[in-house]
Design brief:
This protein is an alpha+beta fold and 139 residues long. Helices cover 22% and strands 34% of the residues. The chain has helices spanning 15-29, 43-49, 127-135, and strands spanning 5-8, 32-36, 51-56, 59-73, 79-85, 90-96, 103-105. A hairpin with a 2-residue loop joins strand 3 and strand 4 (59-73).
Length: 139
């Protein structure tokens, strides 16, 4: 069975802002790590086939392949984990999502399909316009 994670991109307003933030992480540490408190029980499956789906402004907009999940001990002595992510942000069909705390498993049957951006000139359109075009079947 394929497992994925969904996570709210806190403080991120656009896909471009997420890309910039992750480029900063990559430039500073040589990889993209997302730190979280709880270790996923489905760690092995997530590393083999999983992605993290980012929720931006209450919509699932992009996903990233999970490369590794590492257990860590924080400076205060508490346990946590770091999720190493691929550099590529893959746009998906925008899907509304209610807010929640932390991360959740995202079963493969519920995940939005990748957005085929055959026409890359539309990539710079605002997310709300992209979403409406998709709903109307025009994108």
């Amino acid at each position: 069975m394929t497992y994925n994670l969904k996570k709210i991109a806190v403080g991120i307003e656009t896909i471009e802002r997420l890309r910039i933030r992750q480029e900063m992480l990559f430039n500073a540490y040589g990889k993209i790590l997302h730190t979280t408190r709880n270790m996923p029980k489905q760690k092995e499956q997530l590393i083999k086939t999983g992605s993290i789906f980012w929720i931006i402004k209450r919509n699932v907009l992009v996903r990233q392949k999970i490369l590794d999940i590492i257990s860590v001990i924080r400076d205060d002595g508490s346990k946590g984990c770091e999720i190493e992510l691929d550099k590529d942000l893959v746009r998906v069909i925008p899907t509304p999502m209610k807010p929640f705390q932390g991360w959740r498993y995202y079963m493969v049957d519920d995940t939005p399909p990748d957005l085929n951006l055959g026409n890359l000139e539309n990539e710079d359109l605002p997310e709300n316009i992209n979403s409406e075009l998709i709903k109307l079947g025009l994108y």
